[in-house]
Hints:
Elements: H1 4-10, H2 16-22, E1 31-32, E2 38-39, H3 47-52, E3 54-60, H4 70-83, E4 88-92, H5 97-101, E5 109-110, E6 113-116, H6 118-122, H7 128-148, E7 165-167, E8 177-179, E9 190-192, E10 194-196, H8 201-208, H9 212-220, E11 223-226, E12 232-234, H10 241-247, E13 255-259, E14 264-267, H11 282-291, E15 294-298, H12 303-318, E16 324-329, H13 331-337, H14 350-369, E17 375-379, H15 386-398, E18 403-406, H16 408-411, H17 417-429, H18 444-456, E19 460-463, H19 465-476, E20 507-516, E21 521-526, E22 545-546, E23 552-553
Parallel strand pairs: 3-15, 3-16, 4-14, 4-15, 7-10, 16-17, 17-18, 19-20
Antiparallel strand pairs: 1-2, 2-13, 5-6, 6-13, 8-9, 11-12, 13-14, 20-21, 22-23
Helix pairs in contact: 4-17, 7-8, 7-10, 9-10, 13-14, 14-15
Amino acid sequence: MLTDLEIAQEAPIKHIRDIATILHIPADDLEYYGKYKAKLPLSFIDEAKVQQSNLILVSAITPTPAGEGKTTVSIGLTDGLNKIGKKAVAVLREPSLGPVFGIKGGAAGGGYSQVIPMVDINLHFTGDFSAIEKANNLLSALIDNNLQNKVNNLGIDPRTIVWKRVMDNNDRALRNIVIGLGGKSNGIPREDGFNITAASEVMAIVCLAKDFEDLKNRLGSIFVGYTFDKKPVFARDLKAQGAMAILLKDAIKPNLVQTLEGNPAIIHAGPFANIAQGTNSIIATKTGMSLADYVVTEAGFGADLGAEKFLDIKCPTAGIAPKAMVLVATIRALRHHGGATKDAYNTPDLVKVANGFANLEKHIENCKKFGLNPVVAINHFPADSEAEINFVIDKCTSLGVKAVVSKGFAEGGNGTKALAAAVVAAVESGENHYHQLYDWNLSIEEKINIIAKEIYGAAEVVFSAEARTQMKTFTKLGFDRFPICMAKTQKSFSDDEKKVGRPEGFIINVRTFEVAAGAGFIIPIIGQMMRMPGLPEIPASDGMDIDNHGIITGLS
Length: 556
Protein backbone atom coordinates (compact mmCIF):
# COMPACT_ATOMS: atom_id res chain seq x y z
CA MET A 1 0.00 0.00 0.00
CA LEU A 2 1.10 3.56 -0.66
CA THR A 3 2.36 5.65 2.24
CA ASP A 4 0.23 8.48 3.60
CA LEU A 5 2.53 10.98 1.90
CA GLU A 6 2.35 9.18 -1.46
CA ILE A 7 -1.46 9.04 -1.27
CA ALA A 8 -1.59 12.75 -0.48
CA GLN A 9 0.87 13.66 -3.24
CA GLU A 10 -1.04 11.66 -5.87
CA ALA A 11 -4.51 12.89 -4.89
CA PRO A 12 -6.32 15.38 -7.13
CA ILE A 13 -6.72 18.67 -5.30
CA LYS A 14 -9.27 21.40 -5.97
CA HIS A 15 -8.67 25.13 -5.88
CA ILE A 16 -9.64 26.43 -2.46
CA ARG A 17 -12.30 28.72 -3.96
CA ASP A 18 -14.14 25.58 -5.15
CA ILE A 19 -14.11 24.21 -1.61
CA ALA A 20 -15.41 27.56 -0.33
CA THR A 21 -18.29 27.35 -2.82
CA ILE A 22 -19.52 24.17 -1.11
CA LEU A 23 -19.98 26.24 2.07
CA HIS A 24 -21.45 29.19 0.13
CA ILE A 25 -18.44 31.35 0.93
CA PRO A 26 -17.82 34.08 -1.68
CA ALA A 27 -14.37 33.82 -3.25
CA ASP A 28 -13.67 37.48 -2.39
CA ASP A 29 -14.05 36.71 1.32
CA LEU A 30 -11.12 34.29 1.28
CA GLU A 31 -7.62 35.32 2.29
CA TYR A 32 -5.55 33.13 -0.01
CA TYR A 33 -2.38 31.31 1.00
CA GLY A 34 -1.62 29.93 -2.44
CA LYS A 35 -4.17 27.89 -4.39
CA TYR A 36 -5.09 25.28 -1.81
CA LYS A 37 -5.48 26.98 1.54
CA ALA A 38 -7.10 30.17 2.77
CA LYS A 39 -8.04 32.00 5.94
CA LEU A 40 -11.65 32.78 6.81
CA PRO A 41 -12.84 36.05 8.36
CA LEU A 42 -14.41 35.99 11.82
CA SER A 43 -17.58 37.55 10.38
CA PHE A 44 -18.90 34.16 9.26
CA ILE A 45 -19.82 33.19 12.83
CA ASP A 46 -23.60 33.22 13.21
CA GLU A 47 -24.68 32.37 16.76
CA ALA A 48 -28.18 31.36 15.68
CA LYS A 49 -26.78 28.83 13.19
CA VAL A 50 -24.26 27.63 15.78
CA GLN A 51 -27.09 26.53 18.05
CA GLN A 52 -28.82 24.69 15.19
CA SER A 53 -25.76 22.80 13.94
CA ASN A 54 -24.94 19.26 15.03
CA LEU A 55 -21.56 19.09 16.75
CA ILE A 56 -19.90 15.66 16.95
CA LEU A 57 -16.97 15.18 19.31
CA VAL A 58 -14.43 12.46 18.45
CA SER A 59 -12.13 11.18 21.18
CA ALA A 60 -10.50 7.84 21.96
CA ILE A 61 -9.48 5.19 24.43
CA THR A 62 -6.09 5.44 26.13
CA PRO A 63 -3.70 5.28 23.16
CA THR A 64 -0.61 3.32 22.33
CA PRO A 65 2.45 5.53 21.58
CA ALA A 66 1.53 5.69 17.88
CA GLY A 67 -2.02 6.91 18.56
CA GLU A 68 -5.30 5.25 17.59
CA GLY A 69 -6.39 7.40 14.66
CA LYS A 70 -8.79 10.03 16.02
CA THR A 71 -7.92 12.45 13.24
CA THR A 72 -8.18 9.72 10.60
CA VAL A 73 -11.60 8.72 11.92
CA SER A 74 -12.71 12.37 12.17
CA ILE A 75 -11.81 13.01 8.54
CA GLY A 76 -13.25 9.69 7.38
CA LEU A 77 -16.47 10.37 9.31
CA THR A 78 -16.76 13.79 7.66
CA ASP A 79 -16.39 12.18 4.23
CA GLY A 80 -18.86 9.46 5.23
CA LEU A 81 -21.45 12.01 6.37
CA ASN A 82 -21.14 13.79 3.04
CA LYS A 83 -21.46 10.42 1.26
CA ILE A 84 -24.84 9.81 2.90
CA GLY A 85 -26.10 13.25 1.95
CA LYS A 86 -25.27 15.40 4.98
CA LYS A 87 -23.58 18.79 4.75
CA ALA A 88 -20.57 18.15 6.96
CA VAL A 89 -17.26 19.82 7.69
CA ALA A 90 -14.29 18.65 9.77
CA VAL A 91 -12.86 21.15 12.28
CA LEU A 92 -9.44 20.01 13.49
CA ARG A 93 -6.23 21.13 15.20
CA GLU A 94 -3.04 22.12 13.44
CA PRO A 95 -0.05 19.77 13.83
CA SER A 96 2.95 20.73 15.95
CA LEU A 97 6.45 20.22 14.57
CA GLY A 98 7.43 18.47 17.80
CA PRO A 99 5.50 15.27 17.03
CA VAL A 100 6.07 15.66 13.26
CA PHE A 101 9.84 15.32 13.72
CA GLY A 102 9.59 13.26 16.92
CA ILE A 103 7.65 10.04 17.36
CA LYS A 104 4.02 10.42 16.20
CA GLY A 105 4.56 12.04 12.81
CA GLY A 106 2.04 14.44 11.31
CA ALA A 107 -1.58 15.03 12.23
CA ALA A 108 -3.34 15.30 8.89
CA GLY A 109 -5.06 11.91 9.07
CA GLY A 110 -3.91 8.76 7.33
CA GLY A 111 -4.45 6.50 4.33
CA TYR A 112 -7.51 7.64 2.36
CA SER A 113 -8.85 9.80 5.19
CA GLN A 114 -6.53 12.79 5.06
CA VAL A 115 -6.68 16.55 4.78
CA ILE A 116 -4.60 18.16 2.05
CA PRO A 117 -2.21 19.78 1.16
CA MET A 118 -0.73 17.34 3.70
CA VAL A 119 2.86 18.57 3.56
CA ASP A 120 1.87 22.20 4.07
CA ILE A 121 -0.48 21.36 6.94
CA ASN A 122 2.16 19.32 8.74
CA LEU A 123 4.89 21.92 8.31
CA HIS A 124 4.51 25.71 8.49
CA PHE A 125 0.94 25.82 7.09
CA THR A 126 -0.24 29.46 7.24
CA GLY A 127 2.21 30.52 9.94
CA ASP A 128 -0.15 30.37 12.92
CA PHE A 129 2.31 28.54 15.18
CA SER A 130 5.04 30.98 14.25
CA ALA A 131 2.84 33.95 15.12
CA ILE A 132 1.87 32.41 18.46
CA GLU A 133 5.53 31.72 19.21
CA LYS A 134 6.47 35.31 18.35
CA ALA A 135 3.68 36.80 20.48
CA ASN A 136 4.70 34.61 23.42
CA ASN A 137 8.37 35.54 23.11
CA LEU A 138 7.59 39.24 22.67
CA LEU A 139 6.15 39.17 26.18
CA SER A 140 9.32 37.43 27.38
CA ALA A 141 11.43 40.17 25.79
CA LEU A 142 9.28 42.90 27.36
CA ILE A 143 9.65 41.28 30.80
CA ASP A 144 13.44 41.17 30.55
CA ASN A 145 13.54 44.67 29.12
CA ASN A 146 11.57 45.94 32.10
CA LEU A 147 14.01 44.27 34.47
CA GLN A 148 16.93 45.96 32.69
CA ASN A 149 15.70 49.53 32.37
CA LYS A 150 14.79 52.23 34.88
CA VAL A 151 12.06 53.89 32.80
CA ASN A 152 8.62 52.47 33.76
CA ASN A 153 10.36 49.79 35.79
CA LEU A 154 7.70 47.72 37.57
CA GLY A 155 10.05 46.33 40.19
CA ILE A 156 9.48 42.72 39.11
CA ASP A 157 11.25 40.18 41.28
CA PRO A 158 13.08 37.95 38.74
CA ARG A 159 12.80 34.99 41.10
CA THR A 160 9.00 35.01 40.78
CA ILE A 161 8.66 35.16 36.99
CA VAL A 162 6.63 32.19 35.77
CA TRP A 163 6.37 33.15 32.09
CA LYS A 164 8.52 31.00 29.77
CA ARG A 165 9.68 31.28 26.22
CA VAL A 166 8.43 28.76 23.63
CA MET A 167 9.48 27.07 20.41
CA ASP A 168 7.72 24.56 18.17
CA ASN A 169 10.11 21.66 18.48
CA ASN A 170 10.92 18.98 21.02
CA ASP A 171 14.11 20.20 22.72
CA ARG A 172 14.59 18.91 26.26
CA ALA A 173 17.86 20.84 26.71
CA LEU A 174 15.85 24.09 26.86
CA ARG A 175 13.52 23.10 29.69
CA ASN A 176 15.64 24.89 32.28
CA ILE A 177 18.19 27.53 31.29
CA VAL A 178 19.92 30.64 32.62
CA ILE A 179 19.67 33.84 30.57
CA GLY A 180 21.22 37.29 30.77
CA LEU A 181 24.83 36.14 31.12
CA GLY A 182 27.78 37.97 29.60
CA GLY A 183 27.68 41.35 31.29
CA LYS A 184 25.36 44.19 32.22
CA SER A 185 24.36 45.06 28.65
CA ASN A 186 22.97 41.55 28.12
CA GLY A 187 20.24 41.80 30.73
CA ILE A 188 19.60 40.58 34.26
CA PRO A 189 20.78 36.99 34.83
CA ARG A 190 17.92 34.73 35.88
CA GLU A 191 16.54 31.24 35.50
CA ASP A 192 14.22 30.70 32.56
CA GLY A 193 13.12 27.89 30.28
CA PHE A 194 11.17 26.91 27.18
CA ASN A 195 7.82 25.19 26.74
CA ILE A 196 6.73 23.77 23.40
CA THR A 197 4.53 26.20 21.45
CA ALA A 198 1.55 23.85 21.68
CA ALA A 199 1.68 24.28 25.48
CA SER A 200 1.92 28.08 25.36
CA GLU A 201 -0.76 30.08 27.12
CA VAL A 202 -0.93 32.21 23.98
CA MET A 203 -1.98 29.07 22.09
CA ALA A 204 -4.65 28.43 24.72
CA ILE A 205 -5.83 32.03 24.48
CA VAL A 206 -6.12 31.89 20.67
CA CYS A 207 -8.21 28.74 21.12
CA LEU A 208 -10.54 30.26 23.70
CA ALA A 209 -10.84 33.85 22.46
CA LYS A 210 -14.19 34.82 20.94
CA ASP A 211 -13.00 37.86 18.97
CA PHE A 212 -10.21 40.44 18.84
CA GLU A 213 -11.41 42.33 21.91
CA ASP A 214 -11.59 39.13 23.94
CA LEU A 215 -8.16 38.17 22.59
CA LYS A 216 -6.63 41.43 23.86
CA ASN A 217 -8.33 41.14 27.25
CA ARG A 218 -7.06 37.59 27.71
CA LEU A 219 -3.53 38.50 26.62
CA GLY A 220 -3.52 41.37 29.09
CA SER A 221 -4.58 39.00 31.89
CA ILE A 222 -1.53 36.74 31.52
CA PHE A 223 0.09 36.38 34.94
CA VAL A 224 3.83 37.15 34.86
CA GLY A 225 5.02 37.10 38.48
CA TYR A 226 5.36 39.46 41.45
CA THR A 227 7.03 42.72 42.29
CA PHE A 228 9.52 42.88 45.13
CA ASP A 229 6.70 44.17 47.34
CA LYS A 230 4.56 41.09 46.51
CA LYS A 231 2.13 42.71 44.06
CA PRO A 232 1.03 40.54 41.11
CA VAL A 233 2.20 41.58 37.65
CA PHE A 234 0.18 40.92 34.50
CA ALA A 235 0.97 41.39 30.82
CA ARG A 236 -1.26 44.49 30.77
CA ASP A 237 1.10 46.12 33.30
CA LEU A 238 3.79 45.85 30.61
CA LYS A 239 1.34 47.20 28.00
CA ALA A 240 1.99 44.01 26.03
CA GLN A 241 -1.48 43.00 24.91
CA GLY A 242 -1.83 45.37 21.95
CA ALA A 243 1.48 44.43 20.35
CA MET A 244 0.90 40.74 21.03
CA ALA A 245 -2.53 40.93 19.41
CA ILE A 246 -1.02 42.62 16.35
CA LEU A 247 1.25 39.62 15.87
CA LEU A 248 -1.83 37.40 16.07
CA LYS A 249 -4.00 39.40 13.65
CA ASP A 250 -3.98 36.59 11.07
CA ALA A 251 -3.36 33.65 13.41
CA ILE A 252 -6.74 34.20 15.08
CA LYS A 253 -8.50 33.44 11.77
CA PRO A 254 -9.28 29.79 10.97
CA ASN A 255 -7.86 28.02 7.92
CA LEU A 256 -9.88 26.35 5.15
CA VAL A 257 -8.50 23.26 3.39
CA GLN A 258 -10.04 20.04 2.02
CA THR A 259 -10.19 16.29 2.53
CA LEU A 260 -8.90 13.87 -0.10
CA GLU A 261 -12.51 13.57 -1.28
CA GLY A 262 -12.89 17.32 -1.75
CA ASN A 263 -14.96 18.04 1.34
CA PRO A 264 -14.32 21.17 3.43
CA ALA A 265 -12.08 21.05 6.48
CA ILE A 266 -11.28 23.89 8.86
CA ILE A 267 -7.98 23.60 10.72
CA HIS A 268 -6.93 26.02 13.42
CA ALA A 269 -4.56 26.14 16.40
CA GLY A 270 -3.08 23.10 18.09
CA PRO A 271 -2.73 22.69 21.87
CA PHE A 272 -1.68 19.26 23.10
CA ALA A 273 -4.17 17.46 25.33
CA ASN A 274 -1.69 15.97 27.80
CA ILE A 275 -0.21 19.38 28.72
CA ALA A 276 -2.87 21.81 27.39
CA GLN A 277 -6.58 21.76 26.48
CA GLY A 278 -6.23 19.62 23.35
CA THR A 279 -8.79 21.05 20.96
CA ASN A 280 -9.05 23.57 18.13
CA SER A 281 -10.29 27.13 18.60
CA ILE A 282 -13.75 28.26 19.56
CA ILE A 283 -13.66 30.54 16.53
CA ALA A 284 -12.94 27.60 14.19
CA THR A 285 -15.61 25.39 15.73
CA LYS A 286 -18.24 28.12 15.62
CA THR A 287 -17.27 29.00 12.05
CA GLY A 288 -17.82 25.39 11.05
CA MET A 289 -21.12 25.27 12.92
CA SER A 290 -22.22 28.44 11.13
CA LEU A 291 -21.49 26.96 7.71
CA ALA A 292 -22.49 23.28 7.95
CA ASP A 293 -25.23 21.08 9.40
CA TYR A 294 -22.76 18.57 10.86
CA VAL A 295 -19.41 19.49 12.36
CA VAL A 296 -16.91 16.78 13.28
CA THR A 297 -14.21 17.83 15.73
CA GLU A 298 -11.67 15.88 17.77
CA ALA A 299 -10.12 16.21 21.21
CA GLY A 300 -6.59 14.94 21.65
CA PHE A 301 -5.25 11.71 23.16
CA GLY A 302 -7.66 9.65 25.30
CA ALA A 303 -11.06 10.88 26.38
CA ASP A 304 -9.80 11.19 29.96
CA LEU A 305 -7.72 14.16 28.75
CA GLY A 306 -8.93 15.78 25.52
CA ALA A 307 -12.64 15.06 25.84
CA GLU A 308 -12.75 16.00 29.53
CA LYS A 309 -11.12 19.35 28.76
CA PHE A 310 -13.34 19.90 25.71
CA LEU A 311 -16.45 19.26 27.80
CA ASP A 312 -15.37 21.03 31.02
CA ILE A 313 -13.43 24.00 29.57
CA LYS A 314 -14.22 24.66 25.92
CA CYS A 315 -17.96 23.95 25.84
CA PRO A 316 -18.86 26.14 28.84
CA THR A 317 -16.59 28.93 27.58
CA ALA A 318 -18.06 28.83 24.07
CA GLY A 319 -21.66 28.05 24.99
CA ILE A 320 -21.74 25.00 22.73
CA ALA A 321 -22.73 21.36 23.29
CA PRO A 322 -22.04 18.19 21.31
CA LYS A 323 -25.07 16.33 19.98
CA ALA A 324 -23.11 13.08 19.70
CA MET A 325 -19.76 11.62 20.69
CA VAL A 326 -17.53 9.06 18.99
CA LEU A 327 -14.97 6.99 20.92
CA VAL A 328 -12.21 5.64 18.69
CA ALA A 329 -10.85 2.24 19.67
CA THR A 330 -8.47 -0.12 17.93
CA ILE A 331 -8.10 -3.83 18.44
CA ARG A 332 -4.36 -3.15 18.62
CA ALA A 333 -4.82 -0.83 21.62
CA LEU A 334 -7.12 -3.30 23.36
CA ARG A 335 -4.43 -5.96 22.99
CA HIS A 336 -1.96 -3.46 24.47
CA HIS A 337 -4.20 -2.77 27.47
CA GLY A 338 -4.73 -6.51 27.84
CA GLY A 339 -1.02 -7.12 28.30
CA ALA A 340 0.36 -7.51 24.76
CA THR A 341 3.94 -6.35 24.24
CA LYS A 342 4.75 -3.98 21.38
CA ASP A 343 5.94 -6.79 19.11
CA ALA A 344 2.55 -8.52 19.56
CA TYR A 345 0.30 -5.51 18.89
CA ASN A 346 -0.59 -6.90 15.47
CA THR A 347 -1.03 -10.52 16.58
CA PRO A 348 -4.68 -11.58 17.07
CA ASP A 349 -5.34 -12.51 20.70
CA LEU A 350 -8.94 -12.63 21.87
CA VAL A 351 -7.95 -13.12 25.51
CA LYS A 352 -5.86 -9.94 25.56
CA VAL A 353 -8.62 -8.01 23.78
CA ALA A 354 -11.10 -9.23 26.38
CA ASN A 355 -8.78 -8.16 29.20
CA GLY A 356 -8.04 -4.82 27.54
CA PHE A 357 -11.73 -4.01 27.04
CA ALA A 358 -11.79 -2.68 30.60
CA ASN A 359 -10.03 0.45 29.34
CA LEU A 360 -12.70 1.10 26.71
CA GLU A 361 -15.44 0.34 29.24
CA LYS A 362 -14.08 3.00 31.61
CA HIS A 363 -14.05 5.59 28.82
CA ILE A 364 -17.64 4.69 27.94
CA GLU A 365 -18.63 5.16 31.59
CA ASN A 366 -16.87 8.54 31.61
CA CYS A 367 -18.73 9.75 28.51
CA LYS A 368 -22.03 8.90 30.16
CA LYS A 369 -21.05 11.06 33.16
CA PHE A 370 -21.29 14.03 30.78
CA GLY A 371 -24.71 12.92 29.53
CA LEU A 372 -23.29 11.48 26.31
CA ASN A 373 -23.83 7.91 25.11
CA PRO A 374 -20.95 7.39 22.69
CA VAL A 375 -20.75 5.56 19.39
CA VAL A 376 -17.63 3.38 19.39
CA ALA A 377 -15.66 3.52 16.14
CA ILE A 378 -13.44 0.45 15.74
CA ASN A 379 -10.64 1.91 13.61
CA HIS A 380 -9.84 -1.10 11.43
CA PHE A 381 -6.37 -2.58 10.93
CA PRO A 382 -5.58 -5.52 8.61
CA ALA A 383 -4.50 -7.72 11.55
CA ASP A 384 -7.89 -7.42 13.30
CA SER A 385 -9.61 -10.81 13.51
CA GLU A 386 -13.35 -11.24 13.05
CA ALA A 387 -13.58 -12.84 16.49
CA GLU A 388 -11.92 -9.83 18.16
CA ILE A 389 -14.13 -7.35 16.33
CA ASN A 390 -17.32 -9.26 17.12
CA PHE A 391 -16.31 -9.49 20.78
CA VAL A 392 -15.97 -5.68 21.01
CA ILE A 393 -19.27 -5.10 19.20
CA ASP A 394 -21.10 -7.54 21.48
CA LYS A 395 -19.56 -6.13 24.67
CA CYS A 396 -20.47 -2.58 23.63
CA THR A 397 -24.02 -3.71 22.87
CA SER A 398 -24.28 -5.15 26.39
CA LEU A 399 -23.37 -1.68 27.69
CA GLY A 400 -26.04 -0.02 25.56
CA VAL A 401 -23.50 1.38 23.11
CA LYS A 402 -23.36 1.01 19.32
CA ALA A 403 -19.97 -0.11 17.97
CA VAL A 404 -19.20 0.20 14.25
CA VAL A 405 -16.16 -0.83 12.23
CA SER A 406 -14.56 2.21 10.56
CA LYS A 407 -12.50 1.59 7.42
CA GLY A 408 -11.75 5.18 6.48
CA PHE A 409 -8.01 4.58 6.34
CA ALA A 410 -8.33 2.00 3.56
CA GLU A 411 -11.56 3.09 1.87
CA GLY A 412 -12.14 6.77 2.64
CA GLY A 413 -15.76 7.90 2.96
CA ASN A 414 -17.09 4.62 1.57
CA GLY A 415 -15.55 2.86 4.56
CA THR A 416 -17.24 5.14 7.10
CA LYS A 417 -20.81 5.31 5.83
CA ALA A 418 -21.98 2.87 8.50
CA LEU A 419 -20.29 4.98 11.19
CA ALA A 420 -21.82 8.13 9.72
CA ALA A 421 -25.29 6.55 9.79
CA ALA A 422 -24.80 5.53 13.44
CA VAL A 423 -23.74 9.07 14.36
CA VAL A 424 -26.74 10.60 12.58
CA ALA A 425 -29.01 8.14 14.41
CA ALA A 426 -27.43 9.18 17.73
CA VAL A 427 -27.99 12.86 16.92
CA GLU A 428 -31.58 12.33 15.81
CA SER A 429 -32.42 10.14 18.81
CA GLY A 430 -32.08 13.14 21.10
CA GLU A 431 -30.68 10.86 23.80
CA ASN A 432 -27.56 12.94 24.46
CA HIS A 433 -27.92 15.75 26.99
CA TYR A 434 -24.50 17.24 27.66
CA HIS A 435 -23.61 18.72 31.03
CA GLN A 436 -20.37 19.66 32.78
CA LEU A 437 -18.73 17.28 35.21
CA TYR A 438 -18.10 19.91 37.89
CA ASP A 439 -19.05 23.42 38.93
CA TRP A 440 -16.29 25.96 38.26
CA ASN A 441 -17.15 27.63 41.60
CA LEU A 442 -15.87 24.68 43.61
CA SER A 443 -12.42 24.97 45.18
CA ILE A 444 -9.33 24.01 43.18
CA GLU A 445 -8.82 20.93 45.34
CA GLU A 446 -12.44 19.81 44.97
CA LYS A 447 -12.34 20.12 41.18
CA ILE A 448 -9.11 18.16 40.90
CA ASN A 449 -10.50 15.44 43.14
CA ILE A 450 -13.62 15.12 41.00
CA ILE A 451 -11.59 14.71 37.79
CA ALA A 452 -9.08 12.33 39.36
CA LYS A 453 -11.66 10.11 41.04
CA GLU A 454 -14.54 10.26 38.56
CA ILE A 455 -12.62 10.25 35.28
CA TYR A 456 -9.30 8.58 36.10
CA GLY A 457 -10.62 6.23 38.78
CA ALA A 458 -8.08 7.31 41.40
CA ALA A 459 -8.51 6.38 45.04
CA GLU A 460 -6.82 9.53 46.34
CA VAL A 461 -5.15 12.79 45.28
CA VAL A 462 -1.96 13.82 47.06
CA PHE A 463 -0.73 17.42 46.85
CA SER A 464 2.90 18.35 47.47
CA ALA A 465 3.67 21.10 49.97
CA GLU A 466 4.53 23.40 47.06
CA ALA A 467 1.21 22.64 45.36
CA ARG A 468 -0.78 23.40 48.52
CA THR A 469 0.99 26.74 48.91
CA GLN A 470 0.24 27.56 45.28
CA MET A 471 -3.46 26.76 45.71
CA LYS A 472 -3.64 29.25 48.57
CA THR A 473 -1.92 31.88 46.42
CA PHE A 474 -4.26 31.27 43.48
CA THR A 475 -7.26 31.63 45.78
CA LYS A 476 -5.97 34.99 47.03
CA LEU A 477 -5.52 36.14 43.43
CA GLY A 478 -9.06 35.09 42.49
CA PHE A 479 -7.93 32.26 40.21
CA ASP A 480 -9.67 29.55 42.23
CA ARG A 481 -12.88 29.80 40.16
CA PHE A 482 -11.07 28.77 36.98
CA PRO A 483 -11.64 25.31 35.50
CA ILE A 484 -8.87 22.71 35.67
CA CYS A 485 -6.59 21.69 32.80
CA MET A 486 -4.65 18.60 33.91
CA ALA A 487 -1.10 18.02 32.65
CA LYS A 488 -0.86 14.23 32.85
CA THR A 489 0.56 11.33 30.90
CA GLN A 490 -1.69 10.25 28.04
CA LYS A 491 -0.57 6.62 28.34
CA SER A 492 -2.55 5.72 31.45
CA PHE A 493 -5.55 6.76 33.51
CA SER A 494 -3.03 7.10 36.35
CA ASP A 495 0.10 9.26 36.52
CA ASP A 496 2.24 6.18 35.88
CA GLU A 497 2.40 5.40 32.16
CA LYS A 498 3.16 1.74 32.89
CA LYS A 499 -0.28 1.20 34.47
CA VAL A 500 -2.24 0.32 31.35
CA GLY A 501 -5.78 -1.02 31.10
CA ARG A 502 -8.05 0.14 33.91
CA PRO A 503 -5.91 0.59 37.00
CA GLU A 504 -7.64 0.90 40.36
CA GLY A 505 -6.70 2.07 43.84
CA PHE A 506 -3.93 4.36 42.60
CA ILE A 507 -2.91 7.80 43.85
CA ILE A 508 -2.71 10.91 41.67
CA ASN A 509 0.23 13.09 42.69
CA VAL A 510 -0.03 16.84 42.08
CA ARG A 511 3.59 17.98 42.07
CA THR A 512 3.15 21.66 41.25
CA PHE A 513 0.88 24.09 39.39
CA GLU A 514 1.02 26.53 36.54
CA VAL A 515 -1.67 29.11 35.93
CA ALA A 516 -3.02 30.39 32.63
CA ALA A 517 -4.88 33.43 33.92
CA GLY A 518 -5.44 34.85 30.43
CA ALA A 519 -6.76 31.58 29.08
CA GLY A 520 -8.67 31.18 32.31
CA PHE A 521 -7.62 27.83 33.75
CA ILE A 522 -5.39 26.23 36.39
CA ILE A 523 -2.83 23.61 35.30
CA PRO A 524 -1.93 20.92 37.86
CA ILE A 525 1.32 19.18 36.88
CA ILE A 526 0.63 15.52 37.61
CA GLY A 527 3.62 13.29 38.29
CA GLN A 528 6.68 13.96 36.15
CA MET A 529 4.95 15.61 33.17
CA MET A 530 7.06 18.11 31.22
CA ARG A 531 5.70 20.97 29.10
CA MET A 532 8.68 20.68 26.77
CA PRO A 533 8.87 17.14 25.35
CA GLY A 534 12.09 15.51 24.21
CA LEU A 535 12.92 13.66 21.00
CA PRO A 536 13.05 9.85 20.98
CA GLU A 537 16.34 8.04 20.43
CA ILE A 538 15.51 7.67 16.73
CA PRO A 539 13.36 10.68 15.77
CA ALA A 540 11.04 10.59 12.77
CA SER A 541 13.20 13.27 11.16
CA ASP A 542 15.87 10.62 10.50
CA GLY A 543 13.79 9.26 7.62
CA MET A 544 12.85 12.58 6.00
CA ASP A 545 14.39 14.16 2.92
CA ILE A 546 13.73 16.47 -0.02
CA ASP A 547 15.11 16.03 -3.55
CA ASN A 548 16.34 18.52 -6.12
CA HIS A 549 12.78 18.89 -7.48
CA GLY A 550 11.37 19.75 -4.06
CA ILE A 551 9.71 16.35 -3.60
CA ILE A 552 9.54 15.40 0.09
CA THR A 553 9.84 11.84 1.35
CA GLY A 554 9.50 10.27 4.79
CA LEU A 555 6.90 12.70 6.16
CA SER A 556 3.93 10.92 7.70
